[in-house]
C-alpha cells in the first residue's frame, strides 16, 4: 500500500460520529476502506476509539490524504462550517477527492455548496440518507444522491459500503436534497397525523391495540403510523428520532415553499405541533411525543410505560 | 323453502344500489341469500335489474320478510330517513331482523339510531365498510363492526358473503363508527399530504415517476400516497372516490372533535383544501384532484392525460 499512489485502499474520512456517522464509519471500515473519524465532541471520539476506530485531532488532519470525505453533520450550517469555516477542509482536501454530504438541507444550499467546492477542483455528492442508526451500522442505508459522474465515481466505494440502495437522481447537486425534502414533508405530516389520530382514539375510549391492528390493515395506514404508534402504545418516548428533527426539517420545507410561492397548509399545521411539543419541553424526546401533546391539549390519558 | 318459516335461505334487502351496494348485493346473491334491492334513483334500479337482480318498488316492499337489511346509503341523514322517515322501514321490518348500517357517520348518531331501533325489538349492527367497488363486488370488503351478540348472529350470513375481514370491535353500536372515523381522519390527511408533496415535487421540476419510486420505498410512504399518486402521474381524475367524500368525512371528524374539545389542526388544514377543491369545481372529481388545486395555487404544471 502506497501513501500517495494509485493502488492503495481508498481512504475515507468521516466528519461527525453521532449515531449515524458512527455506523457509517464502521460499515466502510468493514468493507476494507481505511477510515479516519472526527467529531467536535470528545465523547463521540472516545466511543469511536473504544470500538477500534482511528480518530483525528482536527478537521485538517482527518481529511489529509482522504479520497472520500463523508460529512454526517446535522444541517446546512454545520456542513458549510466543515467546508468553508475557519478550520474548513475545502482547502485541505486532496485534489480530485469527493465530499459526500449527508445532512438534510434546502436544495438551493446544496447546489451552492457544490458549486463553491467544484470551483476548487473537488467533487461534491449531494447524498441525503434515510434509515436509522441500526441500518447505518449494517451498511444498509438508503441514499438519495445526485452529482456529477466524477463525484459518483469517486464516491462509489463509500456508497457501496454504506447503502443497501443508492438512488442516482441526477447529475447536479440539489436534486438529492429535493427528494429528501419531499420525503421529510410526508414523514413529518404523517407522524403528526398518526399522533392526532391515536390520541383522538384514546379520547373516545377505543381499544388502542385494536386501533393499531385495524388501521395498519386499512387505507389509513402509513409507514410512520406503523412505526411510531407502538411507541405511544408502550408509553415509551425514548428518542429514536427527536421532535427537534422535524422542527428543523419541516422548517426547511416551509422556507423552501415560501420562497417558491407554494402553499403548504399541512406542513404548516404539523410544524406548529412540533413547535408546541418542543416549547412544552419535549424537543429532545421521541417525535411520537406529539401524541402526548395532543393528550395534554385535550385531557386525554395515554398508556404509560410499564 | 318456506316463506314464513325457519329453514328458508336468509332473505336480505339492500337499500342503496350505488357502486358499493350493487356489489354487496351481488356478493350476497352469489353466496345463496335471497336478495331484493332498492334505490331511490331509477338508473340504479335499472342497472340492478339488467344484471338479474330483483328490485322492489319502495322501501316497505324491499324489507318485507327480510331477515337482514343492508343499508348502503351515503350518510347519517339518509340512514335516519331510511329507518325513521315518512316511508321509514323501522315499523315494517320483521321482528328479530337486523339492520346493517354501512354509512360513515358520527359514532354518537350510530348509537342513537341503534337505541331507537332496538326499542322496537329489532337489531342494529354498526358496520362501516372499507375497500372499493371492486372488492365489494368480490365479497372482499373490510367491515368494522360493533353491536349486540344478537345483531352479529343475525347479520352473520350477510357479513360472511360481503367481507374478507370482519373486525368485531365491541358489543354496542358507535364503536365501529368511531374506528371508521379514525381511518377516515388518516386517509383524508394522507391524500392531502400526498397531493401537497407531489405537486411540490413538480414545482421543483423533479422527475415525478422517480419521486413515486423513491417515496413508496421510503419512510414517507402511505397507503394513500401509493394508491392516489398514480392518478396524478396519469393526469386521470376520473372519480374513484370523489373530493366530496372527504368534505363530508373530515367534516364529521372536525364536528366530533369540536364537540369533544379535541384539537385537530391537520384535519382542519386538510378539510380546507378539500373545500377549496370543491369550491373550485372539482367536488365530483377524484380526490387526487387536490394535486391540481395545489398546482393551480402555485403555477405548477402536472402531467396531463395522454
UniProtKB/TrEMBL annotation, chains A, B:
PROSITE patterns: 3_HYDROXYISOBUT_DH. One of its GO terms (biological process) is organic acid catabolic process. Residues 13-170 form the 6-phosphogluconate dehydrogenase NADP-binding domain. The active site is at residue 180. Coiled coil: none annotated. It comes from the Bacteria. Residues 174-294 form the 3-hydroxyisobutyrate dehydrogenase-like NAD-binding domain. One of its GO terms (molecular function) is NADP binding. Pfam families: NAD_binding_11, NAD_binding_2. Keywords: Carbohydrate metabolism, NAD, NADP, Oxidoreductase. Transmembrane segments: none annotated. Catalyzes oxidation of L-threonate to 2-oxo-tetronate. Can use either NAD(+) or NADP(+) as cosubstrate, with a preference for NAD(+). This is L-threonate dehydrogenase. It comes from Sinorhizobium alkalisoli.
Amino acid at each position: 500500500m502506497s501513501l500517495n499512489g494509485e493502488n492503495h485502499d481508498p481512504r475515507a474520512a468521516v466528519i461527525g460520529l453521532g449515531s449515524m456517522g458512527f455506523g457509517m464509519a464502521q460499515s466502510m471500515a468493514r468493507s476494507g476502506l481505511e477510515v479516519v473519524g472526527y467529531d467536535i465532541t470528545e465523547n463521540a471520539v472516545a466511543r469511536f476509539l473504544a470500538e477500534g476506530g482511528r480518530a483525528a485531532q482536527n478537521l485538517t488532519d482527518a481529511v489529509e490524504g482522504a479520497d472520500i470525505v463523508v460529512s454526517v453533520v446535522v444541517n446546512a450550517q454545520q456542513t458549510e462550517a466543515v467546508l468553508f469555516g475557519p478550520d474548513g477542509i475545502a482547502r485541505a482536501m486532496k485534489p480530485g477527492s469527493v465530499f459526500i454530504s449527508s445532512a438534510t438541507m434546502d436544495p438551493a444550499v446544496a447546489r451552492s455548496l457544490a458549486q463553491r467546492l467544484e470551483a476548487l477542483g473537488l467533487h461534491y455528492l449531494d447524498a441525503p440518507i434515510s434509515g436509522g442508526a441500526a441500518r447505518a451500522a449494517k451498511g444498509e442505508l438508503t441514499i438519495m444522491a445526485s452529482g456529477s459522474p466524477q463525484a459518483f465515481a469517486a464516491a462509489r466505494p463509500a456508497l457501496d459500503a454504506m447503502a443497501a440502495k443508492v438512488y442516482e437522481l441526477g447529475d447536479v447537486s440539489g436534486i438529492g436534497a429535493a427528494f429528501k425534502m419531499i420525503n421529510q414533508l410526508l414523514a413529518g405530516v404523517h407522524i403528526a397525523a398518526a399522533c392526532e389520530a391515536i390520541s383522538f382514539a384514546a379520547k373516545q375510549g377505543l381499544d388502542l391495540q385494536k386501533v393499531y391492528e385495524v388501521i395498519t390493515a386499512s387505507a389509513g395506514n402509513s409507514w410512520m403510523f406503523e412505526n411510531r404508534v407502538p411507541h405511544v402504545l408502550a408509553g415509551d418516548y425514548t428518542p429514536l428520532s427527536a421532535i427537534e428533527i422535524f422542527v428543523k426539517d419541516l422548517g426547511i420545507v416551509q422556507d423552501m415553499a415560501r420562497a417558491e410561492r407554494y402553499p403548504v397548509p399541512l406542513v404548516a399545521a404539523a410544524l406548529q405541533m412540533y413547535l408546541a411539543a418542543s416549547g412544552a419541553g419535549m424537543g429532545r424526546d421521541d417525535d411520537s411525543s406529539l401524541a402526548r401533546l395532543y393528550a395534554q391539549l385535550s385531557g386525554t390519558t395515554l398508556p404509560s410505560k410499564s
